[in-house]
Design goal:
With about 450 residues, the chain is mainly alpha-helical. About 85% of the residues lie in helices and about 0% in strands. About 55% of the residues are buried.
Length: about 450
């Protein structure tokens, strides 16, 4: 196989991988500091992240639509159209981010109550939520600006800037905790880092001479481009929304099993996210490579990128999963001293390791389909997986069969396995090719 394929995959993936590793470490550091406050503080960060992940669903909707159209324009070597898409995405991202922030300010407590947060958790969750959720516009913009650069094959700049932002976050965590600011300080550190990251992205994009570069004086609304971003992006956003709202339901179910069950779920989920680092990185790169390859009218190249990326990613995921199985007890001990929680986390890590190959396939193939503009089919599979399998079977295994948190994780694994099979069948049959028509109208608008 041509070494150029190997090289292109790693050129795009490696910076994203490094960036995602640092972001995961950042989340782990937040939980580490929260652990010094108590298990309820760890749970508070967990329930806040559930709500924040719902917000991110809307932001991802913008990014998927933007990336699919922008990368296709790059494949056709049409920088003018690519830059116009980036400007429209920024306008849309700003509006959505501000809207979410206002909603967070007004509905903070009801939103957290939807997660099943108890009063002892709510004491810590509210100040953390206000600090990170109300300024959501900076999270929205930073994600969109990063997606624009990545879609133009520039993954190094987002890596460098995000790495610096993560370092700033850790430094501020240490500073604010030493000042006695508690969990609010952890949230404030996160927001300050996001503000700095957004400003840095704008500075870079305003001064770039080639590729994606901004001219703010030319900003205007382009309805066709906005419609194109929305038509591709909204199903992707709804897919994430379906997943996150479903998580609210089964997280509430987990909390009803007891605080130890939820803390076990939160810690195991944090460790699991480490095995997802490479998966999300390869999926992001595959989405870009798919769009560019289709812009070049080279589906054969797209196929090679998809399956080769899946092989690379699977090797890395297995290494992570086996390592966590070996060191499960000391890793869990970093977050809690409760023996029951540590024992439960060890069990959940074994379940996680078993589903590793299927997780890789789900993310990589979904990234490929979304890069091609097929965002509706992943939505359908996610809906069935979350609301029928995870919630339905989670209740059956966890509550009716009295398997507790282990039963819930069995249901999650079943969802992942079935979705992997269905998505591969969809990709192999090539039905997603009909989704490419949406680009034509968009490309005529700039």
């Amino acid at each position: 196989m041509n070494r150029q394929y190997y090289k292109q995959i790693w050129i795009l993936t490696l910076p994203i991988l490094i960036e995602n590793i640092l972001q995961t470490l950042l989340s782990t550091v937040d939980r580490y500091f929260a652990g010094s406050i108590g298990d309820s503080a760890i749970a508070a960060i967990g329930v806040t992240e559930i709500v924040m992940n719902i917000y991110i669903a809307f932001f991802i909707a913008l990014n998927v639509g933007t990336s699919a159209i922008l990368s296709r324009s790059i494949g056709k070597q049409d920088e003018h159209h690519a830059n116009e898409v980036a400007r429209q995405a920024i306008i849309l991202s700003s509006f959505v981010g501000l809207l979410v922030g206002v909603m967070s300010l007004i509905l903070a407590k009801p939103l957290l109550q939807l997660t099943g947060a108890t009063e002892d958790i709510m004491v810590y969750a509210l100040p953390y939520f206000y600090a990170v959720a109300v300024p959501s516009v900076f999270l929205s913009l930073s994600l969109t600006l990063s997606a624009c650069l990545r879609s133009a094959k520039d993954t190094k700049t987002p890596m460098i800037l995000s790495s610096a932002s993560n370092v700033l976050n850790v430094v501020l965590n240490i500073l604010f905790m030493s000042m006695g600011m508690g969990i609010f300080g952890l949230g404030l550190a996160t927001t300050i880092a996001r503000v700095a990251l957004t400003i840095a992205f704008f500075i870079v994009l305003l001064h770039k001479k080639h590729g994606i570069h901004l001219h703010l004086q030319r900003v205007h609304l382009n309805r066709k481009i906005l419609h194109g971003i929305a038509s591709i992006g909204i199903p992707a956003g709804v897919e994430k929304l379906v997943m996150r709202v479903g998580q609210l339901v089964y997280t509430g179910m987990i909390i009803s099993l007891g605080t130890n069950a939820y803390v076990s779920h939160s810690i195991a989920g944090t460790l699991e996210s480490c095995t997802y680092i490479s998966t999300m990185s390869f999926a992001s790169a595959v989405a870009v490579l798919m769009g560019i390859s289709l812009g070049e009218n080279r589906k054969d190249k797209a196929d090679i990128y998809v399956w080769l990326s899946n092989k690379f990613n699977l090797v890395l995921m297995v290494i992570f999963a086996v390592s966590f199985m070996i060191f499960a007890e000391p890793l869990a001990g970093l977050f809690t001293d409760t023996p029951e929680v540590i024992a439960s986390v060890k069990q959940l890590i074994v379940v996680m390791a078993f589903t590793t190959p299927f997780v890789s396939t789900v993310y990589i193939v979904t990234g490929a389909l979304q890069g091609a503009g097929d965002t509706k089919f992943p939505l359908y599979t996610t809906f069935v997986g979350i609301w029928v399998i995870r919630i339905g079977f989670g209740y059956l295994f966890g509550t009716v069969f009295d398997l507790g948190i282990l039963g819930v994780w069995f249901a999650i694994s079943l969802d992942i396995i079935l979705r992997a099979i269905v998505l591969v069948i969809r990709y192999k049959r090539g039905h997603w090719l009909k989704e490419l028509d949406v680009y034509e109208a968009v490309e005529e608008s700039a």
